[in-house]
Fold:
Amino acid sequence: MARMSDAPTPEAGPDPGTVERFRSLMLPHLDAAYGFARWLTRDPVTAQDLAQEAMLRALRYFHAFRGEEARPWLLRIVRNTWVDQRGRHAGEQPLDVVENRPAEGPDPEQAALSTDRRRQVVAALAALPSEMREILVLREVQDLPYKQIAAVLDVPLGTVMSRLARARERLAVELRGRLGRREHGLPDL
Amino acid sequence: MDCPTCEAMVDAYVDGELTAVESAAFEHALEACPECRKRLQSARAIGSLLRDLPAEPAPDLLRARIERELRMAARPTIRGPLGARLRWGAIAASLVVALGLGWMGGTMTTLQANRDPDALVAWIGTFTCSPTVLTTGN
Structure:
């Protein structure tokens, strides 16, 4: 599958019928797009900007939508938009600093209201490198099958399997360090 | 099934990505592999902890921003033969107006050059305009 950002820009804007079709097919997945953006960016304001830009990009490239599953199609655009944005802002905020800082998780307010266990799980997931975080979110939060995860990330199926196994292992290590055994239910490996 | 093979199948098994035959083979191998049983338990625990996280819906503000963008994108722009006819019509109308204004300007310049107020007033009268507007200073 070609990168959306590499596709030629359509000459004219979408006609009203296309916008209506886009609205009925893609808008129901806005929550999923925002949720994914939230985990990618780990910041509510940046996530809104990312989700909005991704939706507009999706509308621009909607002519390339061939009736496949709408949600992974949209999530792929969210991710590509994020990769492009991160590239643009790489000079402003070095990636290693972003990846290594102890993150608060997607929503500090919500986390404060939830149980300590949930807060710790959010923090542990947010602290993972983005490559591991995104694949865990696509599998466990977005509930996508391997084939769709491969399409979203633009990687072979075998990479999805190995990366997912590594990500689970790493998250288990993080959680063992943050939670008591009774809370995480993880065996010692 | 040896342990590395069994271990490599843990995630696919948990995620329901194995065929029925593969699943049965994995379950059989699992009985003899305590390490893989631990990995399976770990993968399941991770899954249930992550699925327990509350979902966060898109904020109303974001939804409103996108709706506004979609409304703007959906503004009716007439396409096809009718749109083309309308566009050519608009171009033709602009040309008529431009030529008319050019002709009017030329005629007025001639009249003003002759400094003949009566002729100017009469000329303006042909356009049913009020002469008081244009005769000031002449």
